[in-house]
C-alpha cells in the first residue's frame, strides 16, 4: 500500500516536472524577463483561491502564479488518509494544476523564488525575472527547528524520521508508512508552543492513529506532549474524545515541553509541570515512532523580501492584508500574522477572496472597506471513523478592535458528512 502510493506520487511529480505539455502552452511563461500586473507566489489554497477570484472579477487581468511544486498536495484530510478512515484515497489529496490554469487562464511558472526586490518590484527565480505591479505572497509556513533542536544533523534526522506533517506531500507519505507498519509501543506526537498551522491537526491525528490501532488490534499508545494546559483547539471536545473513545490508546500530557530526541536509544526527553512542587521535572519516554512538530514561522519568502514580521509571521497594515513594509505586497494564508486568524485552508480561501476584491477595487481606483468585508472560518476534525467535530469563527469590529466569536459543534456523524462536503467542494472549486 505505502510503496504503491509512493511510486504513484513520484510518477506524478516526475511527469509534471518533465513535460510542460501538461500545462497549456498559452499560459506557461518560459521567457527570461516577464512583466505582469499581479504576481502570486504560492499555489496552495490561498494562492489558487486568489487567482480564481481575481480572474472571475477581471478576466483580462494579467496574473502570473509562481509555484515551486509541480503538483498540488492537500493537508486537510491527510490524517484520515494516514489511518485509512473515510475512504480517502491518494487521488483525493493530490491534483495537477492543469485544470486550474486552463479554466481561469492565468500564467504559471513552475520554479523556486530565490529573491524578491520589493523596491524595484522584481521576483527572481533561477532562470527568470518577473516584474510586477502588485505581489501576493501565499507561500505558507516554514519550520523553526532551531528553537527546539540545536544540532543541525539531528534536525535533518528529525525531518526524515519524525516528520512534522504540516507540509503537504512527502511528509505525509512518511507518516503513513510509520502508522501502517507500526507493531506496538509508543507513538509520540509533540506539539509546539505558539502559533502553528491548523491548530486542531495534531489532536485529530492522535485520534486517527488511535483509530488505526483499535481497528487493527495493535498494542500501541499515542502519547501527546502539549505545552498547553489543554488542546489548542476544541479543547473540551478533544479531551472528551480521548477519554470516551481512546482511553487505552491516547495519553494526553499537558504542560509538557519537548527537549530532545535520541533516535539510537529511541528516547524522547521532555519536561512536565509537577503541581506538587510547582516546577518542571525532566522525564524520558521510549518511542517506536515520533511525530515532532517544531514551532512554525512564515515561509522564507517573507524574509527574502525583507518584510517586517510579528512573532515570526508577516506583519500587516491594519486592517488590510498589505505588508507593513510595502504598499504593493500583500500576504495571505498561513504566513499571515497580525490577526487572530486560524492557519486553516478555509481561512486561506476566505482571505484570498477578500484580497481579490480589494485589489480589483484598487486597480479600478475604487475604495474597499476591510472592516465590512471580514473572513469566516470553519475547521473540521475527525474524531472516530464516522464522527467529527467542527469549530466556526465569525469576526467583527467593535470600536476599531477585531473581535472573534467561536462556536464548537457536537461530535456526531452529521459533522463528519459536512466535513467531507466542505473538503470536496473546496477542491472542486479551485482545482477542477
Automatic annotation (TrEMBL):
Keyword Flavoprotein belongs to the record: yes
Any one GO MF annotation of this record: flavin adenine dinucleotide binding
Domain Sulfide dehydrogenase [flavocytochrome c] flavoprotein chain central: 180-272
Transmembrane spans: none
UniProt keyword annotations, A-Z: FAD, Flavoprotein
Cross-referenced InterPro entries: FAD/NAD-bd_sf (IPR036188), FAD/NAD-binding_dom (IPR023753), FAD/NAD-linked_Rdtase_dimer_sf (IPR016156), FCSD_central (IPR049386), FlavoCytC_S_DH_flav-bd (IPR015323), FlavoCytC_S_DH_flav-bd_sf (IPR037092), SQRD (IPR052541)
Protein name listed in UniProt: Flavocytochrome C
Organism: Malaciobacter halophilus
Amino acid at each position: 500500500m505505502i510503496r504503491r502510493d509512493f511510486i504513484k506520487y513520484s510518477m506524478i511529480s516526475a511527469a509534471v516536472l518533465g513535460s510542460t505539455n501538461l500545462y497549456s502552452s498559452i499560459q506557461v511563461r518560459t521567457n527570461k524577463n516577464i512583466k505582469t500586473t499581479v504576481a502570486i507566489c504560492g499555489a496552495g489554497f490561498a494562492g489558487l483561491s486568489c487567482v480564481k477570484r481575481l480572474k472571475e472579477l477581471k478576466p483580462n487581468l494579467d496574473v502570473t502564479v509562481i509555484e515551486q511544486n509541480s503538483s498540488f498536495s492537500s493537508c486537510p484530510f491527510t490524517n484520515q488518509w494516514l489511518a485509512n478512515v473515510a475512504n480517502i484515497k491518494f487521488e483525493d489529496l493530490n491534483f495537477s494544476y492543469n485544470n486550474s490554469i486552463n479554466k481561469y487562464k492565468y500564467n504559471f511558472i513552475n520554479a523556486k523564488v530565490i529573491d524578491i526586490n520589493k523596491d524595484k518590484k522584481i521576483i527572481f527565480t533561477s532562470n527568470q525575472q518577473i516584474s510586477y505591479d502588485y505581489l501576493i505572497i501565499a507561500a505558507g509556513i516554514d519550520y523553526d527547528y532551531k528553537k527546539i533542536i540545536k544540532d543541525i544533523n539531528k534536525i535533518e534526522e528529525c525531518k526524515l524520521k519524525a516528520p512534522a506533517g504540516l507540509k503537504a506531500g512527502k511528509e505525509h507519505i512518511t507518516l503513513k508508512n510509520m502508522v501502517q507498519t507500526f507493531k506496538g509501543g509508543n507513538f509520540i506526537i509533540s506539539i509546539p508552543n505558539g502559533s502553528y498551522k491548523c491548530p486542531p491537526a495534531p489532536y485529530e491525528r492522535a485520534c486517527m492513529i488511535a483509530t488505526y490501532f483499535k481497528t487493527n488490534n495493535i498494542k500501541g499508545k499515542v502519547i501527546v506532549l502539549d505545552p498547553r494546559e489543554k488542546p489548542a483547539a476544541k479543547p473540551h471536545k478533544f479531551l472528551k474524545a480521548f477519554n470516551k473513545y481512546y482511553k487505552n490508546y491516547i495519553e494526553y500530557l499537558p504542560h509538557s515541553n519537548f527537549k530532545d530526541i535520541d533516535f539510537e536509544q529511541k528516547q524522547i526527553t521532555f519536561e512536565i509541570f509537577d503541581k506538587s512542587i510547582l516546577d518542571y521535572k525532566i522525564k524520558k519516554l521510549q518511542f517506536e515512532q515520533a511525530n515532532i512538530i517544531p514551532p512554525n514561522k512564515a515561509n522564507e519568502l517573507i524574509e527574502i523580501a525583507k518584510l517586517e514580521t510579528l512573532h515570526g509571521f508577516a506583519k500587516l497594515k491594519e486592517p488590510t492584508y498589505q505588508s507593513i513594509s510595502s504598499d504593493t505586497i500583500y500576504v495571505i494564508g498561513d504566513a499571515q500574522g497580525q490577526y487572530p486568524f486560524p492557519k486553516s485552508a478555509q481561512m486561506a480561501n476566505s482571505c484570498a477572496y477578500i484580497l481579490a476584491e480589494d485589489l480589483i477595487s484598487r486597480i479600478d481606483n475604487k475604495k474597499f472597506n476591510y472592516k465590512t468585508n471580514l473572513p469566516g472560518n470553519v475547521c473540521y476534525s475527525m474524531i472516530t471513523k464516522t464522527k467529527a467535530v467542527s469549530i466556526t469563527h465569525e469576526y467583527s469590529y467593535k470600536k476599531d478592535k477585531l473581535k472573534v466569536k467561536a462556536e464548537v459543534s457536537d461530535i456526531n456523524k452529521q459533522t463528519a458528512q459536512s466535513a467531507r462536503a466542505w473538503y470536496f467542494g473546496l477542491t472542486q472549486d479551485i482545482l477542477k
